[in-house]
Design goal:
Layout (H helix, E strand, L loop, with lengths): L1 H8 L3 H18 L5 H8 L4 H29 L1 H21 L3 H28 L6 H29 L1 H25 L15 H10 L1 H17 L1 H13 L3 H27 L4 H19 L5 H29 L5 H8 L4 H16 L2 H29 L7
GO molecular function: transmembrane transporter activity
Pfam family, one: MFS_1
InterPro entries: Bacilysin_exporter_BacE_put, MFS, MFS_dom, MFS_trans_sf
């Protein structure tokens, strides 16, 4: 009992609320958003390209919001930004429940991406504010675990709700976010959050990030490569579910199990695979990740049931584990201390791939079918390797004193 109390006391109560809320909110969101493409196809009979625009508008608005969120947090404080964005996300899901036209779904999902991009960085900053420096890594590891616990349970709940009542999934998610914002607001009122020191680093703006991309060729190639990776990976939440529903028996349930397998694999394998990958150069790890992702996408074009679906998601997950942390590490290597925020801000432009992928993929799915779509995506993802290699060459030439990764 004493050990349990000691473990609880290592973090501020508001940090525990944020961690617990992450499980509930992400779990309910994963019960809804991955199935949004199926809902739009079934209930509104939308063209796959329009579905792609609806899904892709969220990450696009998130790119803009990512730059605005930090500025608003500095100006108005963590509390109003977090409470406002969470409440907005709750309203979005209630809006999904009553929306009946494509235009409303596009507006609502844009608002969802904008609100999420405000809440996420501000929430992470608050965790850092309220946690001792020596324990911050542990807090962020717990947050990452909380996200994937939600991601492992949510899709199975979503598959069940999709059968019972598709709109009930939106309602459950809206209620969960509302409960989250209510508890967080009460806890913020009860406990002092201190007065975090103002960040004296240069402000991260769209203009400053574009300027850095213009100057740093290595960063430019890295961003282009990761845009392509995200272009491919975005098919997972847009065109993969539509394709599985139309081609295999119990496609929605198979898709939900695949998403849960993906989340569980990330939780279990992230650390061992990352530890093993440290033995190799970062660029080699990125290339291996692109190959795994490409093979996984190709496999989706030939999915006939459970076994081939699970095989595809295993390849996708290994690629994801190898590529995404490595790309962040390379951005960190390229950045100077005083411009680190601007470099990571510039790296957010990779989310453009999440906007373009669902639209282009939707067009190919409708015009040429799944096998052509996923074969094309596999080839495009492999093409990212060329950008990574070129970026690495420039990095080595311009930084002769660093370890050549």
């Amino acid at each position: 009992m004493n050990k349990l109390k000691s473990y609880y006391r290592q973090f501020h109560p508001i940090v525990w609320v944020l961690l617990s809320g992450t499980v509930l909110a992400r779990g309910s969101a994963f019960a809804t958003l991955p199935f949004l493409a199926i809902y739009l196809s079934r209930n509104l009979d939308l063209h796959p390209v329009l579905i792609g625009i609806t899904i892709g508008i969220s990450p696009l608005s998130g790119v803009i919001g990512g730059f605005l969120g930090g500025h608003l947090s500095d100006r108005f404080g963590r509390k109003p930004v977090m409470i406002g964005s969470l409440f907005s996300m709750s309203l979005v899901y209630f809006g999904f429940m009553i929306a009946e036209t494509p235009g409303w779904f596009i507006v609502l999902n844009a608002l969802n991406g904008l609100s999420g991009s405000f809440f996420e960085p501000t929430g992470q900053a608050l965790i850092a504010d309220l946690t001792e420096k020596s324990k911050r890594m542990r807090a962020f590891s717990l947050r990452y675990t909380a996200i994937n616990i939600g991601a492992s349970v949510g899709p199975l709940l979503g598959a069940y709700l999709a059968v019972v009542s598709a709109k009930s999934a939106f309602m459950v998610t809206g209620v969960m976010y509302f409960i989250y914002v209510l508890i967080l607001a009460l806890m913020m009122k009860k406990y002092s959050m201190g007065n975090p020191a103002s960040d004296k680093a240069s402000k991260v703006t769209i203009a400053s990030s574009l300027k850095i991309i213009g100057k740093d060729k290595a960063l430019r190639y890295l961003i282009l490569g990761t845009i392509i990776i995200n272009f491919g990976y975005s098919q997972m939440e847009s065109n993969v579910p539509q394709y599985l529903e139309s081609t295999i028996a119990n496609g929605v349930f198979v898709y939900s199990v695949m998403l849960s397998i993906n989340a569980v694999m990330v939780v279990l394998l992230q650390m061992p695979i990352s530890h093993f990958a440290e033995k190799f150069k970062t660029m080699q790890v990125m290339m291996a990740g692109a190959v795994f992702l490409s093979v996984g996408m190709l496999a989706f074009g030939f999915v006939t049931g459970w076994y081939t679906g699970i095989l595809a998601i295993v390849f996708i997950t290994i690629g994801e584990i190898l590529i995404f942390p490595s790309s962040s590490y390379l951005v960190d290597q390229l950045a100077t201390d005083e411009l680190r925020g601007t470099y990571f801000g510039a790296a957010q432009f990779r989310r453009i791939g999440h906007f373009l992928g669902p639209i282009a993929g939707g067009y190919l799915l409708n015009e040429a079918g799944g096998t052509v779509l996923f074969s094309f995506i596999a080839l495009v993802v492999l093409g990212s390797i060329l950008f990574f290699i070129q970026g690495n060459k420039i990095f080595i030439k311009t930084s002769p004193t660093v370890v050549k990764n």
